[in-house]
Amino acid sequence: MAVGTKELVSSELDTFDDDKLVAELKKAKEELFNLRFQAATGQLDSNGRLKAVRRDIARIYTILRERELGIRTAPSVSE
What we know:
By secondary structure, the protein is mainly α.
C-alpha cells in the first residue's frame, strides 16, 4: 500500500500541467511546515501524516524532473 495523499496519486499528477504541479508543491510544503511546527509543540495527532506529505512532495519533484529530462511528458492542451 502506497503512503501518501489519496488525491495525489502519480496517475492523477500526470494530468496536471507544470504550473498546477508547482502550486500543489507549494501547498504540500506549507502543510509540511505546519505539521513540523505541530510536532515541535506537541500538538501533532498523527505522525503518519508527516511521512505522507513528505512522500507527496517527493512524488511531485520526481514528476517535474522526469518532464524536464523528457522521460515523462506533460499533458497536451486540448482546445
